Amino acid sequence: MPYLYIISGCNGAGKTTASYTILPEMLGCKEFVNSDEIAKGLSPFNADNIAVAVEASRIMYRRIRELVAANKTFALETTLASRSIAKLLQNAQEKGYYVTLLYFWLNTPDLAVERVRNRVASGGHNVTESTVRRRYTAGIQNLFQLYIPICDYWMITDNSLSPMEVIAKGFKNGKREIYNPVVYNKLETYE
Fold it and tell me: Name one Pfam family in it (predicted).
């Protein structure tokens, strides 16, 4: 059975950093589709340019279609701020994929903004503050309203501090384990 891993969370949550350890070492996944990394490959000094980002997204979706058609295990990275990958996940499941979602949460949008600023200061890619804040909220809302119900397995972790803390995990059948009910309830009702 092929696996599709969704590495998700707001900008600055540590998705890419975690992916380079979790995917190959813990999950044995060698295919990682990440539009930010594709954009860097297209234009290393201008990866934040809208035209570059659009082309990177186009390449990302083409690669995802290729991997699904070949029945390959792979991972992709997303903020979940868009509803666009929901249909992709469902199509993959129809082809026999087991979809696992890992969500890296930060406890405030301010922390997300700060982490993006730190990343830029270290030479990483920028995301505007307004976009970080919009995606922070939309990602949490879509996580609960759209993505948790369709994923076979999901896990939410608090990556605000080190070491990260598992908040909750669950399955498509509704079975779930909540380790931090205060945070989980806050997220489930986040506006």
Answer: AAA_33
Environment class of 20 (CB within 10 Å of its CB; exposed 0-12, middle 13-18, buried 19+): exposed
Of 41-50, 101-110, 137-146, 147-156, minimum mean pLDDT range: 41-50
3-state secondary structure of 37: helix
Query: What share of the chain has pLDDT > 90, as a percent?
Result: 66
- Please count the helices (runs of H) and the strands (runs of E) in the chain: 8, 7
Contact of 138 with 80, CB cutoff 8 Å: yes
Residue 139 is encoded by which pair of tokens?
């990602």
Summary mean pLDDT of the chain: 91
Specify the length of the chain in residues. Answer: 191
Q: What is the spatial distance between Cα 140 and Cα 146, in angstroms, rounded to a whole number?
A: 10
CATH fold label, 3-31+76-188: Rossmann fold (3.40.50)
